[in-house]
Amino acid sequence: MAAAASSSSSTTTAEEELTLTVKWSGREYTVRVCGDDSVGELKRRICEATNVLPKRQKLLYPKLGPMKLSDDSVLLSQLPLKSSIKMTMVGTVEDEIIVDPVDAPEVVDDFELGQDEVVDIKDKEVNKQKLRRRAGQCKIEIRNPCRKGKKLLVLDIDYTLFDHRSTAENPLELMRPYLHEFLSAAYAEYDIMIWSATSMKWVELKMGQLGVLNHPNYKITALLDHMAMITVQSDSRGIFDCKPLGLIWAQFPEFYNSSNTIMFDDLRRNFVMNPQNGLVIRPFRRAHSNRGSDQELVKLTQYLLAIADLSDLSELDHSRWESFSEADNIKRRRHS
């Protein structure tokens, strides 16, 4: 019993809240996290305070050693951390240079979790708590007003709207074909938010270069970045980040909910907290050779407009979007 007590006193419980002090560049910053957060979540909180991107941070705490804090997937409850401890962060703010995410490792294994595991993740109370905390911490900045009565389309950037791995003198060469036509048509029925797993600087830079932020035929309601994501854990795939739409619904309940939201992303793992609202788009890679043949956004425009008048988008099986027809739509209207 004594050994067990000693062990429990040296680690943090999953629900326990920690107030940590992070020393960086001659100043001290207070960061609040919970035991069920990961090291990656801790780095996000530090990023909020310092503007140093998580991938640029190196955390130092002598009692842990460098390896423990270099693994973003480790849960803080697994580490001997207590409130009021002080750790040091080494890192540089990217004020002048926008670093292309090309230098980040590419995700090639877009795993598909089993249905039972997906249900377990989205219904797990610890993940709901993370979502509630993130909704309170991450305030979405509205660029253009939400429109009553419109549905919501949430779009990824990398490999969805833009080939971020290929190189070109002009970013427009890497833009997915028919992007502006797609956004213009969708805007008639949907508010549009763009959510990337990269930094806000990258989001604003690329969307600005592609002419998305000031287009005369449509408006972008909001931009979200990696700071709005949460970390979840699965039995088969371990710890990974995802994009919980509940964060948007919590902040704009009078406009958006699970029945009127659809999200496009090339990684299905990003939908794990809202699987009924996600559509896996074919990734747009090798832009120079595929630019002339890629029709994905043309076809998805037809799908979005076909389902726009349905009362509940979450009842659809978006994995079968290519087989959806106007006949299906008419049939649904008769039964509604």
UniProtKB/TrEMBL annotation:
Keyword Nuclease: no
Chief subcellular location: nucleus
GO biological process, one term: regulation of proteasome assembly
Enzyme's top EC category: hydrolase
SUPFAM superfamilies: HAD-like, Ubiquitin-like
Gene3D superfamilies found in the cross-reference section: HAD superfamily/HAD-like, Phosphatidylinositol 3-kinase Catalytic Subunit, Chain A, domain 1
Domain Ubiquitin-like: 18-90
One Pfam family cited in the UniProt record for this chain: NIF
Cofactor list: Mg(2+)
Xref: InterPro entries: FCP1_dom, HAD-like_sf, HAD-SF_hydro_IIID, HAD_sf, Ubiquitin-like_dom, Ubiquitin-like_domsf, UBLCP1
Reactions performed catalytically: O-phospho-L-seryl-[protein] + H2O = L-seryl-[protein] + phosphate; O-phospho-L-threonyl-[protein] + H2O = L-threonyl-[protein] + phosphate
Keyword set includes Ribosomal protein: no
Protein name stated in the entry: protein-serine/threonine phosphatase
Organism: Stephania cephalantha
